[in-house]
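sorry for the late reply, my laptop died twice this morning and i had to redo everyting from scratch. anyway the thing you sent over, i finally got around to it. pasting the sequence first so we're on the same page, its 182 residues, then the predicted structure underneath. double check i copied it right bc i was rushing
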Amino acid sequence: MTLASLRSRAGAALRRAWEREDGNGTFELVFVLPMLMGIFMTSFESGYLMARQILLERATDLVVREIRLGRMASATLPEMKTAICDRTVILVNCMSNISINLQRVSKTTWNLPSGIVPCVDRVDDIDPSVIVSPNTPSDVMLVRVCVMQDAIFPGAGLALGLLAEGDNGYPLVSVSAFVNEP
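ok and here's the structure:
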């Protein structure tokens, strides 16, 4: 068998394989299935993220309302954390992943705190220093809540853009304000 005949036989085999029509659906499936799975995972992650965010916003508003109405007049940060976490059933490990920042807003300058809301750093196991401004009647208080939550599909879709560095979680932030009634 010469090299030329071997080449012609290999070429004929490749041509026959190329012209075959059985297994055509496999080719499309290989290209379309990953795209469809990516869309599914992104949709599911987005819906779950929105449900978590809405429940965190609602819980924060309910707790701030309780404070505003005087039902939690001398609430401490651990009591606020417990009250928020009790009202959010969908957040996983809420008590260990929540941080609350409570600051007084100056009524002369109305400058709001700048920067990112401090969140729990689960990689280095750091709980951020929480600012609690002493408050007096008629003070405007700003409550900023951050909860770190794990992504359902951390390596795909929406989660790739949301994840904190070195962690499988993303921060959920809720902000509210109230006035201390005299």
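The helical segments are 3-19, 24-68, 77-87, 94-97, 159-162.
thats about all i looked at so far, will dig more tmrw
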